[in-house]
Design brief:
By secondary structure, the protein is an all-alpha fold. The chain has a domain of 97 residues. The protein has 16 helices and no strands. The two termini are 26 Å apart.
Length: 315
C-alpha cells in the first residue's frame, strides 16, 4: 500500500484503483443497477456526504455505471469538503497517483492530513510513507515514524474490534516493522484474520508469506489457495502471480490455459506500466507454446471467469 513514485498516468490509474479495491471493496453496499445509482445521485445532489462518498466508490469501481475516475473525483471531493474522512483519504490518494487529476503530492498531503486528524488509519500510514519518501513534504524519518506509530495504535484497537482494513494494515506494519517491531508471526496472524474476512490484499499477502516461509513453514499449496481467492476478487496482482504459478506448475498442476486466462483478466486492469508489461511478456511466451485449440479454450475460460467475477461484484 506504499506510495510509489510513478512516472506515467496509466500506471498511476492502475495503482489508484488497486488501492481503492483493497481498502474499500466489500465494506459498502453493492449497487449493480443504474436505477440504484440514479437514486443515489439524487440524494448526493442534496448534499449528503455519505452518499457522495458512495457514488465516488461506484464510479471508481464501475458498479452499475462505466468506470469514470473524473466522476469519482467529483463526488469524493464534495464529500471530503464536508469533512468525510474516508473521502479525504481517497482524494489524497488520487492526487498522490494522478488518477483523474494532475499529480500533486502537496495536495495529497493536505487531504491525508485532514483524514489523519479524524483518525483515518490509511491516512496515518500514508503520511508516514510520504515523510519517509519526501513526497509532498520534506523528508523526515522521525516525523514518518511518528505517523507510523499513530497508525499502529489505531490499528491495534480497531483490529481487535474486527475492522478488516485495520487488521490488514496492522499485518502490514508488523511485516515491515513500521510503527511496531518487525514480527512476521504477528503479521501472519493479522493477514489471516483479514483474509478470512474477505480482504483480497490480505489474501495476497498471506499467499506471499506461505510461498516464502515467512512466519510459517513454506507451503506452496496454501500459497496458491489464498492467491486464487484474491484473484477471484479481481485483484490484478494476484491474477498475475496465479498465472505465473500455473505456467510453472508450482503449487498446482501446470496449466497454460488457466495461466493465459488469468493473465488476460489481469491486463484488463494493467494494460500499461510494469504489471502490464510483465503480464504481456508471460502471455507472449505462453502463446508460442500453446496450440490454437488451447488458445481458444483460454479465451472461453477468460470470458467465464470474467462473468463470475462481475456476478460476485453485483452481490
Amino acid at each position: 500500500m506504499g506510495i510509489m513514485t510513478i512516472r506515467n498516468a496509466c500506471r498511476g490509474k492502475f495503482t489508484f484503483f488497486l488501492l481503492a479495491f483493497v481498502m474499500l471493496w466489500g465494506h459498502q453496499p453493492g449497487f449493480a443497477e443504474t436505477q440504484d445509482v440514479e437514486q443515489l445521485r439524487q440524494v448526493a445532489e442534496q448534499g449528503d456526504a455519505e452518499t457522495q462518498f458512495s457514488l465516488g466508490q461506484i464510479y471508481s469501481f464501475g458498479r452499475g455505471v462505466p468506470q469514470d475516475s473524473e466522476e469519482a473525483v467529483k463526488w469524493y471531493r464534495q464529500a471530503a469538503e464536508q469533512g468525510h474522512s474516508r473521502a479525504q483519504f481517497m482524494l489524497g490518494d488520487i492526487y498522490a497517483h494522478g488518477a483523474g487529476v494532475t499529480w500533486d503530492y502537496q495536495e495529497a498531503v493536505k487531504w491525508f492530513r485532514l483524514a489523519a486528524e479524524a483518525g483515518d488509519p490509511g491516512a496515518l500510514h500514508k503520511l508516514g510513507l510520504m515523510y519517509e519518501s519526501g513526497e509532498g513534504v520534506p523528508k523526515n524519518k522521525r516525523e514518518a515514524e511518528k505517523w507510523y506509530r499513530k497508525a499502529a495504535r489505531w490499528c491495534q484497537k480497531a483490529a481487535q474490534q474486527g475492522e478488516v482494513d485495520a487488521q490488514y494494515m496492522l499485518g502490514s506494519l508488523y511485516s515491515t516493522g513500521k510503527g511496531v517491531p518487525q514480527d512476521h508471526n504477528e503479521a501472519l496472524k493479522w493477514f489471516r484474520v483479514a483474509a478470512n474476512q474477505g480482504s483480497a490484499m490480505a489474501q495476497f499477502k498471506l499467499s506471499h508469506m506461505y510461498a516464502n516461509g515467512m512466519g510459517v513453514s513454506q507451503d506452496h499449496n496454501q500459497a496458491v489457495k489464498w492467491l486464487r481467492m484474491a484473484a477471484k476478487q479481481d485483484f490484478a496482482a494476484a491474477q498475475v502471480r496465479l498465472a505465473q504459478l500455473y505456467a510453472k506448475g508450482q503449487g498446482t498442476p501446470e496449466d497454460h490455459v488457466k495461466a493465459y486466462a488469468w493473465l488476460k483478466l489481469a491486463t484488463a486492469h494493467a494494460d500499461c506500466g510494469r504489471t502490464g508489461r510483465e503480464s504481456n511478456r508471460i502471455k507472449d511466451t505462453l502463446r508460442e507454446q500453446m496450440t490454437a485449440e488451447q488458445l481458444a479454450e483460454a479465451e472461453q475460460l477468460t470470458a467465464e471467469l470474467r462473468e463470475r467475477i462481475q456476478a460476485s461484484k453485483s452481490q
